[in-house]
Write a structure and sequence with these properties.
This protein has 332 residues and is an alpha/beta fold. Helix content is 29%, strand content 11%. Helix 4 packs across helix 5.
Amino acid sequence: MTEQSKIDRHNAKPGSLFERADAAFGLEKMGGASVPRNLPVAPKPAARANTAPAPAPANVPTSPPAPAEHVAQSADTQIPNDPAPKPAVELRGQRLEIDRDLLHKAGLIVPEDPVTGLLEEFRIVKRELLADARASSDASARRILVCSPHPGEGKTYCASNLAIALAAERDVEVVLVDADLLNPSVARRLGIEAGEGFMDALSDARIKPEDIVSPTDIDGLFIMQAGTSTSRDSENLTSARTGEVLDRLTRNAPNRFVIFDTPPALAASPAAELAAHVGQALLVVRADQTGRAALDDARQLLSACPDIKLLLNAAQFSPSGRRFGDYGEGEE
């Protein structure tokens, strides 16, 4: 067995394993290292912050949180306001004076005259058109085409009276456009000198339509004449330029109406071509003249317009018994 007795290192023979190890490694001097005296003093740890909210002072009311919009306005990056709406195009043609004597002779409404049965009748017509236009968000609803199946049924008479009646509305502008390119008659009926007009704006892109729409001495009434007719009138009406011109007249102008006096639907193509650019059409038929077949054909030609209304002209009776213009002073 191996001896387990304790070996005396101090009495070991010279040159023994212990002696050599002691000489080489200094086992006598082995021990813990001394601690330096100039060590830096560690800072004391900071006291932990009290995360609990401090109680509000007694009897001091607390303010409610600021509204969200106020906070947003005080921030560095503010929410921009909506851009201001663009103004409508100003109609700045040469001012015209309407001949009141010609209005009387033509049987048209004269704004300065007392209220007549004719005015009351067109007030009823315009109320229907105004209501439908204001109920629609589409600007085309404020573009109204006035047409008839055949010549001589009163479409220019009705278009002129409607324009004068509409112009009497407060804060309303009415542009009467003579779109009867074959037989323009608006200037002649109103007693104004012929000049540039609708077809000039369509054929020449350099002409701004607002420059040839003339204010008149009837408040709210503007006139756009037919202009110079050419062999390419039909092609000009079907071009993209027509939409651009009409959009410019009604854009950003919710109280501006455009009334077109067109050729008879069964006599020429402009009425059918303009029907695609308007939101309402007034089809004038004469009580003692227009036939049912002609009425149906005219309605078919104007079918591009979403809302076609019928106006019975020269009627000698009213199915409801309603009659205007007979109520005067002294009557009850």
